[in-house]
Write a structure and sequence with these properties.
12 helices, 339 residues, 3 domains, four-stranded antiparallel sheet, 6 strands, globular, alpha+beta, two-stranded antiparallel sheet
């Protein structure tokens, strides 16, 4: 298999991010979950807040609800955009959406103690703990309205878009969770970015605050790669059965780290290329077919020949290809670990 360039790897990750969001926003359960979460927050905000100690919770709720409604208003004003094309307009809209969300979540993390005690070592308190459960279920850090037509990279946490995660780090070692089923070339690129960009840079002079991963060969450092099996939260958490825990010294050679992970991944999994993704045009036609057939009918139920033939005429595809695209949409729910 030919080695992918950095541009091709970035395009592949961008494609998966777009496919993930387009699939999620067409998920009926996601729309219900978002509506229910926002309704619960709004009811709690409208309740009676007697204690001063509860005001922090109320402020966090009000900010999150206001941010959600601001996103709905922004989507109505700005209109739809092709989220698969990352141009200047995409970047501008993504920045505007993130500004709305960041502003709405300013009051999420606050100290329950005084400012002096907090600076003395007290940790912050999360006044929106519901977002943790929401993220575990939908791989999104915030309930984004389905009317938003572009994926927001900073909010998506699925393994298919974030195949390398930092578990812990110190001055001497870094521990990573790696999801090789995404594709070893993509994983290797993300590991390079993690090791080279996450750590602080050299200080001027002879000494360094932290030792960096070296690009030069011959730098000794033992890299350990172990298979980790987490307890699955539900039947859709298939990717968590294929996690590699990588522990590497910060002073190791970069190429040696990547090579070791490739070898160990091949030994443990038997194959390092398990992902099977199609091109952008295929997914565009798939989502067009789903919209025409109806989201509810596309998610489950028997596929009727009559509507399929009608849709085939509109999208200029044979009936069997229309049927195959609906089946591919259903399969994405399992692939992307969606309820």
């Amino acid at each position: 298999m030919a080695k992918l360039s950095r541009t091709e790897i970035q395009r592949s990750l961008n494609l998966r991010t777009w496919v993930f969001w387009e699939t999620v926003r067409r998920n009926s359960a996601y729309r219900s979950a978002v509506a229910g979460l926002i309704a619960n927050w709004q009811n709690e905000v409208n309740g009676v807040w007697k204690k001063r100690s509860e005001w922090s919770r109320r402020n966090a709720l009000q900010g999150a609800v206001d941010a959600f409604h601001a996103l709905e208003g922004y989507a109505a004003r700005a209109g739809d955009i092709d989220g698969s094309i990352r141009g200047k307009e995409f970047m501008n809209r993504e920045a505007q959406v993130m500004m709305i969300i960041d502003d709405g979540l300013k009051a999420r993390w606050m100290p329950k103690v005084s400012l002096i005690e907090w600076k003395g070592g007290k940790s912050l308190t999360d006044f929106l703990p519901e977002l943790h459960k929401f993220e575990q279920q939908w791989h999104l850090k915030f309930p984004v309205p389905s009317s938003i037509s572009l994926p927001i990279d900073d909010l998506i946490t699925t393994c298919w878009c974030r195949p390398v995660r930092i578990v812990s780090h110190s001055q001497d070692t870094m521990v990573l969770d790696v999801y090789p089923a995404v594709g070893i070339e993509i994983v290797s690129s993300c590991i390079r970015g993690t090791l080279l960009n996450f750590l602080p840079k050299r200080r001027r002079g002879r000494w360094m605050a932290w030792r960096l991963v070296s690009r030069k060969a011959g730098i000794a450092g033992k890299v350990t790669v172990e298979a980790v099996v987490y307890e699955t939260r539900d039947q859709f958490r298939n990717m968590e059965q294929m996690v590699l825990r990588v522990t590497c010294p910060v002073s190791a050679n970069l190429q040696s780290v990547v090579k070791t992970i490739k070898i160990r991944a091949s030994e443990i999994l038997g194959s390092t290329d398990r992902s099977n993704w199609r091109d952008r045009d295929y997914y565009r036609s798939m989502f067009a077919v789903v919209d025409l057939y109806g989201i509810a009918r596309s998610e489950s139920g028997k596929l009727r020949l009559g509507p399929l033939k009608k849709i085939a005429t509109e999208v200029n595809l044979p009936s069997h290809q229309v049927r195959d695209r609906i089946k591919a949409f259903r399969a994405l729910r399992s692939t992307l670990e969606l309820p």
